[in-house]
User: Which sequence fits this backbone?
């Protein structure tokens, strides 16, 4: 029997559809990113209130550098503004801020604000808010493999000892649980290089709602559906 009212411990979201939301209204694409921040605040606060263990948000992918310089610059400036403006939201909701991705390639001023926010929230006790920044699932696996190969070469790791748990320790998400629920807004039904290793048994929820319009009621809908799912992990339910 499906367990009712069960909340996912870890929710991951591909926040898509900002550009289309804006174009629909005759605005520039970047206006959609601006509006999307309001969804981030509402969904983050809501998840923290529900005592969700972790919320991982796909904010910028390895591939998003392909966009125009104007859009990339706008996104970076917005990220910096977000980090400064939402310190109070993070504090008020007892949130611990973390990141995954090649954050070393982000602009220096963004990195500075990131490190301040992470340091400030380090001793909080509530939900983990993990921002995927310059993140790619394949890059994550490659970065892990490089570190792992170096340890094998050094002799601190034997290749015969490599298993799922050992490999996981080399990923950006080391120490984090895998997502139970993956949400993608904006209508596309693809994972776009997000958490490739980690979503192997996640429940998927796709909605055509654009991210700037995705709010509490949409989250409730996804959670209601999740509660009805029967997770078998390849086994059988008695
Ligand atoms: C998602 O919205 C935000 C980022 C990828 C940074 P998009 O900008 O991809 O919006 P669409 O998909 O073009 O509508
Ligand atoms: C995925 O959205 C990346 C983020 C939400 C940050 P994209 O808009 O970049 O994905 P594609 O290009 O539609 O696959
Ligand atoms: Mg998109």
Assistant:
């Amino acid at each position: 029997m499906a367990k009712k009212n069960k909340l996912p411990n870890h929710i991951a979201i591909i926040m898509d559809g900002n550009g289309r939301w804006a174009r629909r209204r005759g605005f520039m694409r970047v206006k959609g990113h601006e509006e999307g921040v309001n969804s981030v605040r509402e969904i983050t606060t809501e998840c923290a209130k529900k005592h969700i263990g972790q919320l991982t948000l796909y904010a910028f992918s390895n591939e998003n550098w392909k966009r125009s310089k104007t859009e990339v610059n706008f996104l970076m400036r917005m990220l910096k503004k977000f980090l400064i403006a939402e310190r109070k939201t993070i504090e008020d909701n007892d949130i611990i801020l973390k990141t995954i991705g090649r954050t070393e390639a982000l602009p220096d001023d963004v990195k500075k604000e990131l490190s301040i926010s992470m340091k400030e929230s380090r001793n909080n006790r509530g939900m983990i808010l993990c921002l995927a920044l310059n993140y790619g699932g394949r890059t994550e696996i490659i970065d892990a493999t490089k570190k792992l190969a170096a340890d094998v070469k050094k002799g601190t790791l034997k290749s015969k000892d490599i298993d799922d748990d050992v490999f996981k320790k080399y990923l950006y998400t080391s120490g984090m649980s895998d997502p139970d629920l993956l949400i993608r807004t904006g209508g596309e039904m693809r994972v776009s290089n997000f958490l490739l290793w980690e979503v192997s048994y996640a429940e998927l929820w796709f909605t055509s709602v654009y991210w700037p319009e995705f709010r509490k009621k949409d989250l409730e809908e996804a959670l209601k559906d999740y509660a009805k799912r029967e997770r078998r992990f390849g086994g059988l339910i008695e």
Remarks:
- The radius of gyration is 18 Å.
- The chain has a mean pLDDT of 97.
